[in-house]
Design goal:
This protein has 442 residues and is mainly alpha-helical. Helix 3 packs parallel to helix 7, helix 7 packs antiparallel against helix 8 and helix 12 crosses helix 19. The protein has two domains: 203 residues, Clc chloride channel (Orthogonal Bundle), CATH 1.10.3080.10; 196 residues, Clc chloride channel, CATH 1.10.3080.10. The protein is built from 20 helices and no strands.
């Protein structure tokens, strides 16, 4: 057999296999490997940045600390503004918009949202923000980064595998990004079902599940089978506890939705500002106000807030009114400043400090449970994804005994929040972008 015959036979075999699921799943597994490795490195760099920022606030001279905060938060806005505008913000709206666009006719726009240039700048800008102490998380950017990597590998795979949907790569990437960020594979699948897929998940569920499994295996192999939050101790759950879960969940759910509404208003106001000078001054003013907050009110406003959650759940910490102020004010100031960074973790932290604060007043008997359910309810109100919210916290804590209060809190939060706010912040941003895109295309 000649080399030509061998190659021809090889192509014939590949031609017979290329329409089989076995071959089509290969690029998803390859993308999972790349996304998992990138997510691990990004996460380590991000949390190291939080530690550096906390050290700077606690030990550096105030002038040096202020300079670092102002310069890093400014860079977090300027780098996306100058080099890749869609690298700003949280990252989840960009992924959701890319998922809605037509992969054939909107390829340049999709690349601007989740292309390699954009996700590279997202990594740099968000780490810069957290080095300055910015109240942002790494979870939203991880979803944008993972979906971008999946999309790019999907583009390459269409050269040798036919009948591959580019939307399925974006969908699988977003789900894998969430699974990697929180080490919650079920949460990733739940998010794909509830937020990303809507109508067409059934066509791509196999690839999503394989992508999440592969990413989860890689992350757990490197970092171990850990719980993102841990295994908090809970008291017995009585009927009185259920009553306070309902009350606090309704309050935090409404506040979560209201928080999203305010963020969208900020988003709209920033769009109306075209002047580079005004945007620069606005960023510096927000950076200065933020530095005042973390320096003179509470340094618990630094970063995404994971360490504060751990303190509340495992070190007998209790949230104060100052903690609530900096945890709500920080992400709002970052949004006004146009800094790059996620809202996922900051939302969980706002829920945690609210739950802790309310528990001290109404029901200290089960302090930890109210913290957990308030995290779920605030996130449910903010994102309007109740199933994802309680699955995430359930996986992060592995508290089977609290499953029913968790489910109840998410249902109550969404039910009450939708009385006042029908759509989440992410949906509002996505719809606004798509509306402007259609107007421009006409």
């Amino acid at each position: 057999m000649t080399l030509t015959d061998f190659c021809r036979n090889g192509r014939q075999i590949l031609h017979k296999l290329e329409y089989q699921d076995t071959l089509r799943v290969v690029p998803y597994l390859l993308a999972s490997l790349v996304a998992a490795g990138t997510s691990l490195l990004y996460s380590q760099a991000f949390f190291f940045g939080e530690e550096v920022a906390l050290h700077a606030v606690e030990h550096f001279h105030w002038a040096l600390s202020l300079s670092i905060t102002l310069s890093m938060i400014y860079l977090s806005w300027y780098l996306p503004y100058r080099f890749a505008k869609q690298a700003g913000g949280s990252g989840i709206p960009q992924m959701l918009i890319a998922n809605e666009l037509d992969p054939a006719s909107d390829k340049p726009l999709i690349r601007s949202l989740i292309g390699i240039r954009t996700i590279t700048m997202k990594i740099i800008a968000s780490i810069a923000c957290v080095l300055g102490g910015g109240a942002v998380g790494q979870e939203g950017p991880t979803l944008q980064i993972a979906s971008g990597l999946f999309y790019r590998i999907g583009e390459k795979s269409t050269k040798w595998i036919q009948q591959v949907s580019m939307r399925s790569f974006i969908l699988a990437g977003g789900a894998s990004g969430l699974a990697a960020a929180f080490n919650t594979p079920l949460g990733g699948i739940a998010y794909a079902l509830e937020e990303l897929s809507k109508d067409y998940f059934n066509n791509f569920k196999t690839y999503v599940i394989w992508s999440v499994i592969a990413t989860g295996l890689i992350v757990q192999t490197v970092q171990g089978s850990y719980l993102y939050i841990g295994f908090p101790s809970l008291e017995s759950i009585s009927w009185e506890t259920y009553m306070w879960v309902i009350v606090t969940s309704a309050i935090t759910g409404i506040l979560g939705a209201s928080f999203g509404s305010v963020l969208f208003s900020v988003h709209q106001k920033r769009k109306s500002i075209q002047s580079f000078t005004r945007l620069s001054l606005l960023n510096l003013a927000c950076g200065f106000l933020f530095w005042l907050g973390i320096t003179f009110i509470s340094n618990h406003g630094i970063g995404g807030g994971k360490m504060l959650i751990l303190d509340l759940l495992f070190r007998d910490g209790s949230a104060t009114a100052q903690d609530i102020l900096v945890r709500i004010g920080g992400p709002l100031l970052m949004a006004i400043a146009g800094a790059a960074g996620g809202l996922f973790a900051p939302s969980l932290t706002i829920g945690a400090v609210m739950g802790s604060f309310m528990a001290q007043i109404v029901w200290p008997h089960n302090h930890h449970l109210l913290i957990m359910t308030s995290m779920i309810s605030f996130l449910s109100g903010f994102m309007q994804t109740p199933f994802t919210a309680f699955i995430l916290i359930f996986e992060m804590t592995d508290r089977h005994s609290a499953l029913f209060p968790m489910m109840l809190s998410s249902a109550i939060a969404v039910g009450t929040s939708r009385i006042f706010h029908k759509k989440s912040f992410y949906d509002l941003v996505k719809e606004d972008f798509l509306h402007q895109h259609k107007k421009t295309a006409k």
